Amino acid sequence: MKSSLGNIRVAKDADLRSKQAVFDQHFVFQPEPVKHDRTAVLLLSWQGSNMDGVSKELQDVRSVFEKVYGFEVKEKELVGDMPASAPQPQLQLQHILTNFMFHHHSTRPLYIIYYAGHGFGGDKAGNLHLPREVKLKKSTKQDIIVWNEAEKQLHNQRADILLIFDCCDAGALRQRGDYTFEFLGACEANKKTPFPGHESFTTALVWALRNLAEEGTGFATPKLKSEIKKHGKFQGDPVLFYRGENANPSGPHVWIERMPQGSGSNNQTPTRPFPDLIVDSQESWDWMEFRLWFDRAQKHEDVKNLAQGYNQLVTEHGQDLGLRLVSLVKSSLPPGQVSNDLKIFVDNWRQYKRRASSASQIPQLEIIPPESTLGSSFPPSPSEPIVEVLTQAEPRSPVTLIHSPSKTPPPGVDLMGPEDMEVKELYEGEAHPEVPRHIGK
Question: What range does the domain containing 345 cover?
Fold first, then answer.
């Protein structure tokens, strides 16, 4: 009897340990943001743009990054309407990006590239074109930037990169390795964004950056996006997604933080004031335990996908929620394995009790299931074989074993032996807890 019970517990422990190993492998815990030893901002626009207000908003962006955050800021204009013999805008942009990264290179830099102007989605999905004027949308390639081509030189750079585009169709660009490459746009694909002014994306961006700077700690890009949406006059829906050839939706986000006052451009930005993960006293910690219900047995691939889903939750909302860690604590045994092992144990239990007492004094074994999960055949009558009754039960139904003696047991026969208590403890609330009644309603 003990060997069957031991098999149940060994199988349960082994199954849980293997799932925990898979979950821990794919849940990427990042207690601190990446330290940037240098942050540089590139402001891009078209020279002679017909969009009123761009120049003022560029200066507002420059002011908040330069004066409030202490970042290095460079402003460059793309020159259109050039003769055929002169460098065209696409080549100009490639040259600008190369020089920008060359002159601001460091051990672990953050590059922020901001663009203000027109934009529209290309013929291919995922393409974004940046024209000098709206009327050029369906004209020649001259005076139109194909951003997807220009950004190729940003891929695989030893730097974190954040693109911020205030243009229409920004979401048309939607598609990690050791570095993060993200895009923050004013709107989704096939959407328009307000012109420069009090209701523009850039106005909301500058407002959000100033607000977050006052908090004194750094922030990740999801919080910046969330703060932008709080602006009273900007009614758009900004987008945030990963770029790059190895984009990972569960990877870390770009971290932005003010440079310490009086520091040079090469001083490290301070890290977020997180406590260590392992501390002597966890009195300030709080936790909640949830139970997830699945319509099938969970395999290792399912656990991997679950861990990656929690990655995204923590990276998107962890800072606002104070959420630091997600761990797998318990799991049920596969339904078929529970049913088979339980039958084996019950058979052994009955044989053991028969040897301990006469047949007329054997305490009956009663199956008490929750009313909401089992059929009308429960509880069984005393004449029904216990194994047949177990076979009729739904494989995932919760089961509790108790003894209901028809006569007083002889001396020395326990009504609830240690082995029975162990099975009761093993299954009650662990292997097959009661399914919430609201499920499926």
Answer: 2-11+333-431
